[in-house]
Amino acid sequence: MNEAQKKKISKFLSLILRHQPETINLILDENGWANIEELRLKSAKNNIHFTLEELDEVVETNDKKRFIFNEDKTKIRANQGHSIDIDLALKPQQPPEYLYHGTAEANISSILEKGIEKRSRQHVHLSQDKETAAKVGMRHGKPKILTIRTGKMFENGIVFYLSENNVWLTDFVDKKYISR
């Protein structure tokens, strides 16, 4: 499978598993899992075709590890980034002292004024390193990286989760914990 095909399938999976399963009449369970055979069948009816091997390749080679299989590879879900209401069944965890948030330069003044909001997503996403944060920021324009004092947030009772693909998640980052 070439890179263009992988990208097409990955974008489609992101849409279906994170935002709009109803697009293909797919039902996700309360934890966001989709039955792979049902996903393949309903995708094919919408002219998106992929084999189990191709799906496996998309999951394994995705640079952000957006998707995960269950143990017996009968189900798939997105690791985070949902705008639909699902329970990823993540356990609260203590974050490192500092994490990073990548954004576009155009968003900086709003973030420094209001904080980082989850908006239509279930959580605010934070990265463990500046390189990953920069990649995230690049998707939206000229990237800027903000340093988040997550150790202090945790001390102050803010809850954090770590997704399966090592993205830190929280509900909101108040501006007082953000530095440039």
From TrEMBL:
<dbReference type="InterPro" id="IPR042080">
    <property type="entry name" value="RNA_2'-PTrans_N"/>
</dbReference>
<comment type="function">
    <text>Removes the 2'-phosphate from RNA via an intermediate in which the phosphate is ADP-ribosylated by NAD followed by a presumed transesterification to release the RNA and generate ADP-ribose 1''-2''-cyclic phosphate (APPR&gt;P). May function as an ADP-ribosylase.</text>
</comment>
<dbReference type="InterPro" id="IPR022928">
    <property type="entry name" value="RNA_2'-PTrans_KptA"/>
</dbReference>
<comment type="similarity">
    <text>Belongs to the KptA/TPT1 family.</text>
</comment>
<dbReference type="GO" id="GO:0016740">
    <property type="term" value="F:transferase activity"/>
</dbReference>
<dbReference type="InterPro" id="IPR042081">
    <property type="entry name" value="RNA_2'-PTrans_C"/>
</dbReference>
<protein>
    <recommendedName>
        <fullName>Probable RNA 2'-phosphotransferase</fullName>
        <ecNumber>2.7.1.-</ecNumber>
    </recommendedName>
</protein>
<dbReference type="InterPro" id="IPR002745">
    <property type="entry name" value="Ptrans_KptA/Tpt1"/>
</dbReference>
<dbReference type="Pfam" id="PF01885">
    <property type="entry name" value="PTS_2-RNA"/>
</dbReference>
<keyword id="KW-0520">NAD</keyword>
<keyword id="KW-0808">Transferase</keyword>
